[in-house]
Structure prediction request, 218 residues.
Amino acid sequence: MEGAGQRGRFIAIEGIDGAGKGVQSRALVDWLRRLPLEVLHTREPGGAPGAEEIRQLLVTGAAARWDSMTELLLVYAARRNHLTQTIWPALAQGQWVVSDRFADSSRAFQGVAGGLGLAVVEQMHALVVGDFAPDLTIVLDLDPAVALARTERRGGAEDRFEKKGLSYQTRVREGFRELALRSPQTHLLIDAAQSMEQVTSALLEAVAERLQLQQERA
Ligand SMILES: Nc1ncnc2c1ncn2[C@@H]1O[C@H](COP(=O)(O)OP(=O)(O)OP(=O)(O)O)[C@@H](O)[C@H]1O
Ligand SMILES: [Mg+2]
Prediction:
């Protein structure tokens, strides 16, 4: 089978809060494992013990607790830890890696919505990450009002970015859309307003085609 036994690929799932990244990244991981591939499922901010500690600083507390530049510094400290402790070792062992959020989140949140600009994020990225990039970035595109209704049902304390409000989330969404549209060879833009099952099948079909994996026959 194409894909199995080769070097691992790195897939990032992106989108605003409540777009369905958790649900859809689990579905993608389950599907890849059935192919079968060895898959590591991880997330940002976090994905390694130190990075998970930094996550708590970022996603809890008052919205004004950190300005955009401080967020960027914390996010990239966590990302460096995630790469060195988790992602790079897994890829080196031939595993596939699926991450719920990666660098496009910094571009969309701190760069576009937070006002730092993409050039500042790219400078930080070059310094901390270098040339490394996902083989594929999947952007789940959803109206922030719909996403908010989904996350309100869920609740929880990790709501610092939701507290920045609908206009902030709208700018994040636009940031993600522009990143996907300007790099169609590395990105997939998926309509996340459909039912979970419909989003999953659109996503799996697109991933299978893009990465030339054989679709499981029902
Ligand atoms: N297509 C869908 N239709 C309706 N509800 C959905 C859909 N996808 C996900 N949900 C629900 O919306 C909520 C948010 O989904 P999920 O946690 O996967 O989003 P997320 O992008 O990971 O959010 P966050 O960034 O806040 O972690 C969950 O309660 C989930 O069950
Ligand atoms: Mg999530």
User: Anything to note?
Assistant: Residues 50 and 81 are 7 Å apart (CA to CA). Residues 10-210 form a domain with the Rossmann fold fold (CATH 3.40.50.300).
